[in-house]
Every structure is written in C-alpha cells, then in structure tokens.
Design a protein that fits this description.
This protein is an alpha+beta fold and about 200 residues long. The protein folds into two domains: about 80 residues, no CATH class; about 100 residues, Ribosomal protein S6/Translation elongation factor EF1B (Alpha-Beta Plaits, 2-Layer Sandwich). It is about 55% helix and about 25% strand. The protein is built from five helices and five strands. Strands 1, 2, 3, 4 and 5 form a five-stranded antiparallel beta sheet that branches. Helix 4 packs antiparallel against helix 5. The chain is rod-shaped and about 125 Å long.
Length: about 200
Amino acid sequence: MAFEGTMRSLREFDISSLDFDSVGSWPTPIKLFIWAVLLAAVVVGGYYYHVKDLQLELAKIEAKEITLKKDFEKKAFQAANLDAYRQQMVEMEESFGALVSQLPSATEVPGLLEDITNKGLLNGLDIASIDLRKEQSREFYVELPIAINATGSYHDLGAFISGMAGLPRIVTLHDFNISAKGNNANSLKMNIIAKTYRYKDGDT
C-alpha cells in the first residue's frame, strides 16, 4: 500500500544524506515538514516585520480617535449651548458695567470722602483725620487707600464699619487697629485703611 511504502521509505531514508540539490527525491513527509517549517517562519517573520507595526499604528489611530471623539463631544456641547453662553456673556457684561459704575472716578473722590465723614458723624464718631494715601496701580484697576482715624464707643465703631458697606461706591476695609484710652471702653481709638477703586480703562 502507499502508506506502507511511505513508511518504508522514511525508515530507509538517511537524514545525513539530505542534499538540497536533490530535493525532488526526498520523501514526501520530509518535504511536507520542510514546507511547514518554512511557512511558520514566513508567518512569524511577517508578524514581527509587518503585522506588529500595523498593530502599533492601529493603536495610535484608535487613541487619536478617542481624542477626536472627546473634542467633537466638547464642541457639540458648546454649539448646543451657544445661545446660553451668549446670554451669559450679556449678563456678565451687565454685571461688569454695574460694578464699574460703583468705582469712583477721580472727580468723585471728594464726594466719597464726604460720605465717609458723614457716615462716621451719623454713628457718633469723632473723626480725627481722613488722609488720602498714594494710589497703587494694579493690572485692571487703580487702588486708592484712605487712612481713617476716629474715636468712639465699641457699638459706634461697629455701626460705622457696617454702614461703610452701604455706601453707593465700592469700599473695602483693611488693617484694623483699635485701642482703648485707659479702661474707658466708651472711648476707643480706631485706625483703619479704607480702599476704594477705579477702573483703569486704558490709563496707567
């Protein structure tokens, strides 16, 4: 039978006599084995020299796809909410304008000093001095410190400080220093820095 003949030829074949010049005379199983080894070598080599590079490139493209999807989702969300953003911009501009209107111009500072003085007198304080300090320029605004020295009771000082928040212009209070004359709690001396601001609007 053919199978028995093949097995007999394999048993009788001397592997040390393999000669590539006579490949055609090799037994069929040997030739099939050699072809299988060569095919496996080609597949493995092709994977490492071509398929692996393609997989790395595919991984990069997939990562880029994820980034593009996120960018698309972000832009789609912004586009869907464009009208809301525009409304917010209008509201922010209105709020900014309202805040700017609360910043005194240089010509309004005397009126602000008068308001501070009246606020102190209405609350029973004895205003010793109100001194303008040197302006300090910031990035978007100019800061004007005002040193206030006043005397009054604890409650009068508290009412004055609370009343400063009710001024029509923005005024912030800093560097509190309150001291008593002896043991008299009804005669407290207060040194405080009030700061007001004006919008630079392009000036220096």
